[in-house]
Amino acid sequence: MSDLAAFPPVAPDVLASAEGASSGVLAAVEDAIEAVFTPLSEGLSAVVFAEIPIGDTGFPWIVGWLILAAIIFTVSFGFVQFRNFRLATKIARGRFTGDDEPGEIPHFHALTSAVSGTVGLGNIAGVGVAVTIGGAGATLWMIVAGLLGMATKFVECTLGVRYREHHPDGTVSGGPMHYLRKGVAERMPTAFGRRLGATLAALSAVFILFFGVAGGNMFQTNQTFAQLTEVTGGDAGPLGGDGAALVFGIVLAVLVGWVLVGGARSLGRTTSRLVPAMAIIYVSACLIVILVNIPLIPAAVGAIVSGAFTGAGVVGGVVGALIVGFQRAAFSNEAGLGSAPIAHSAVKTRHPATEGYVALLEPFVDTVVICTMTALTIVIADTPVWRDAQATYAATGEDPGGVTITSSAFESVLPWFPYVLTLAVALFAVSTMLTWGYYGQKAWTYLFGRGPVRLRVYYGVYCAFIVVGSVLTLGAVLDFADSVLFLLALVNIIGLYILAPVVKEEVVRFRVARRSGECVEMHPGERRELTAAVSSSDE
């Protein structure tokens, strides 16, 4: 590894001390599992996060794979994320589609479901690591990568709706396992094309299922409990000990399981409330710090811009700042991984391109807004903790504690911020668990079928691992899951390149529908009244 170590995609660093079994049978079980997964994790991570030497630094090839795809799709679709941003916000507000269209949930619910799977712990801790290793300039490159990733989301989520499957009970299933299998076979109507599509689809389902149970589930549980324990007095507090962890895990499993059993509609209703709430709480805290230090804003913005092009004080200089910024964005918004199309596929629409436009807002919210707000807060606060962490990394290469850096920036103005942080962690973690539980369910049913018994088995497995995550750390398993998730990017983007012409067809189809009057912009309330009037006249 070079001085710029690759961040784990979902868990850039530990928010509070990881909570694992301290002794007895649980500790023995954890040690046995770790012994099996450690060599597997190390071997796979060495391949997935291998770095290409660039001067004095290294650039993980998987990040390059994601950024290259984002650039290609940005150019080939005519900078769709900039030209159609306003249109995307209108579609998300329901101005082009109605409740009578095929699907399960409105555009806004699909968006919040997907955002809840990406906005999480990395937006707090990962950004702290990024601006420490890459300097303030990493923020600008993080924004650039987030803007580019919007085009990738547009492509993959349009495909998710195009190739989704409608079931007799009114539910739908979509995602990479469906558009890779059906789409690749459609574009390559040969035995090889069918086998390639089926293989890519099966791999994507396996990768999504494994990460959903581990990284999207156990890690979130463990870190939420760890943070709660930290603010309630540590091991000496009421949550100290494995007994409290077990009770916490059971309660959380029941709550998550209750939402998951309701399917996409239940998930959409829940995340449509959770995501705005957690965004408002966290962004408000950022704005308080920024506004209190308002005279320092010009200097902070100047440091971000100049640092991006000078790389002053950063290992690897300009290239080092660029690499770190690109890594943080790629690992945060998950554009190109193929996970988000599962949530977006449940949308109510007759035109797949409409959800592609809505989906491009996702990296904007995750990276351009929330990650940038975190970075700007840290740079403006300019605390001794951040400066010391930068000096330590430059001298020793020791990875900084991202949450300590972020927390110190907030505490410079808000001494009670650890409690806000705990609330943010809990909201971020629960929303991530819900969304990845839904993703895992769709992967499970693709692999094993949709029968009620099979679904109950999945719910039982997923909720059981919530309890496991509360009492065991299983770091090697989580590291292995991170690597598996980014293998999904390799599989998914191959399919996106093959299917890009299909997306262009859908863009043209939606454009024609708008020009012909088939798809008219209308206030959602007016559309509902019109639909009701048409229905009554038909009767």
Low-confidence residue ranges? 1-19
Count of helical regions: 22
Number of strands: 4
Mean pLDDT: 82
The separation of the N and C termini measures 69 Å
Strand order of the largest sheet: 1-2
- Percent of residues in helices comes to over 70%
Shape: globular
Q: Helix- and strand-based class?
A: mainly alpha
Largest sheet features: 2 strands, antiparallel
Percent strand equals under 5%
Computed Rg: 23 Å
Order of helices and strands: HEEHHHHHHEEHHHHHHHHHHHHHHH
What does this structure look like?
It contains 22 helices and four strands. The chain is mostly helical and about 550 residues long. The longest helix has about 40 residues, at about 475-515. The strands form two sheets. Strands 1-2 form a two-stranded antiparallel ribbon. It has a two-stranded antiparallel ribbon with strand order 3-4.
SSE arrangement:
Layout: H1 24-48, E1 51-54, E2 57-60, H2 61-76, H3 80-83, H4 85-92, H5 107-118, H6 121-133, H7 138-162, E3 165-166, E4 172-173, H8 176-187, H9 191-231, H10 242-261, H11 263-292, H12 297-310, H13 317-333, H14 340-344, H15 352-359, H16 361-381, H17 384-396, H18 402-411, H19 417-448, H20 452-471, H21 475-516, H22 524-538
Helix pairs in contact: 1-21, 2-7, 2-21, 4-15, 5-11, 5-16, 5-19, 6-13, 6-16, 6-18, 7-8, 7-12, 7-13, 7-15, 7-16, 7-21, 8-9, 8-21, 9-19, 9-20, 9-21, 10-19, 10-20, 11-16, 11-19, 12-13, 16-18, 19-20
Looking at this protein, list some descriptive labels.
globular, 539 residues, two-stranded antiparallel sheet, mainly alpha, disordered N terminus
